[in-house]
Design brief:
The chain is α/β, with parallel strands linked by helices. The chain has a single domain, classed as Rossmann fold (3-Layer(aba) Sandwich). It contains nine helices and six strands; from the N terminus they run αβαββαααβααβαβα. A six-stranded mixed β-sheet has the order 3-2-1-4-5-6, with helices on both faces. Helix 2 runs antiparallel to helix 4 and helix 6 packs antiparallel against helix 8. The protein starts with 8 loop residues before the first helix and ends with a helix.
Length: 287
């Protein structure tokens, strides 16, 4: 006759502890597995240049080079930069694509410590960006609003909502008061007139946004260097004024910003002492 012996409390406790250790080990392995297979960061940048004749081509491309240096410093992973020039009425307001530059980053480089990047690759990136900027053809008027919409459309095929993908639009603006869109221009004129500003504030809350920039940051820079024409000279608009008019046009207004300057000069480290001549170096040599 088989006799059943009661299980001791100690053995039950040991079994529970063993199961807990197994579950914990599986959780830890799963966590590190996800870290290992997490996709690398990818940045997509759309950069537009205002080609109006109120700024010299050299100064315009100098700002573009500075922005290129900023992008290289801020983004250590894979990066795709497309340069445009703002369009006009002949292009239907759509921007003109000048070219795309891709900067790759190997896993070995990303995993190394204290290494910021390949100086030769970064300089090649800047040189190509400079050659694209030299293709900008000056024109009398630029379609700012159409340019922003066109760059948003160029990102439509990118999954900007994914955590490892970063999408940004930059506009090196020259005269935001001449944006080409009639409704926008009308509101900007009302903002510049002290008598109509109060009425405009109530209208801005009712504007239906037209540009879907969800998960896409939009930065307009260079307003400190713009040259104003009549009637803007008498009542120049501040960055906050411009933002108040522009932001309602976007479905994610919190991602829209306006900067007085585009970017400071950032030195690219070199492997040798005889660095490649850049636009910044040319300018400094002339001073």
């Amino acid at each position: 006759m088989n006799r059943k012996y009661p299980t001791s409390p100690g053995s039950m406790s040991n079994t529970a502890i063993g199961l807990l250790l197994i579950v914990s080990l599986v959780a830890i392995l799963t966590y590190f597995y996800r870290l290992e297979v997490a996709p690398p960061s990818i940045t997509y940048l759309m950069l537009a240049v205002d080609p109006s004749g109120t700024i010299k081509q050299h100064n315009r491309c100098l700002d573009i080079e500075r922005l290129g240096r900023k992008f290289l410093a801020d983004n250590q992973g894979e990066m795709h930069l497309t340069l445009f020039q703002l369009g006009s009425r002949t292009t239907g307001g759509l921007p003109i694509r000048l070219g795309t530059i891709t900067r790759q980053r190997s896993l070995k480089l990303l995993e190394s410590t204290g290494q910021e990047g390949d100086p030769n690759q970064d300089r090649a990136f800047l040189n190509k960006l400079g050659s694209f900027c030299q293709q900008v053809k000056p024109q009398k008027t630029s379609q700012v609003f159409g340019g922003l919409q066109g760059m948003i459309n160029n990102l439509s095929g990118i999954n900007c909502q994914l955590e490892h993908i970063h999408c940004s639009i930059w506009l090196r603006g020259d005269g935001l008061e001449e944006g080409g869109d009639l409704n926008l221009m009308r509101r900007l004129k009302q903002m510049s007139n002290p008598k109509s500003r109060g009425l405009l504030h109530t209208k801005l809350d009712k504007i239906k946004s037209r540009i879907n920039n969800k998960n896409i940051s939009v930065t307009i820079c260079g307003t400190a260097n713009r040259q104003l024409h009549r009637p803007w000279r008498n009542h120049p608009l501040s960055n906050s004024d411009l933002l108040e008019v522009y932001r309602p046009e976007f479905k994610a207004p919190e991602l829209v910003s306006i900067q007085s300057e585009c970017a400071p000069f950032i030195e690219i480290p070199t492997a040798a002492s005889d660095a490649t001549t850049t636009l910044e170096g040319e300018r400094n040599g002339q001073e």
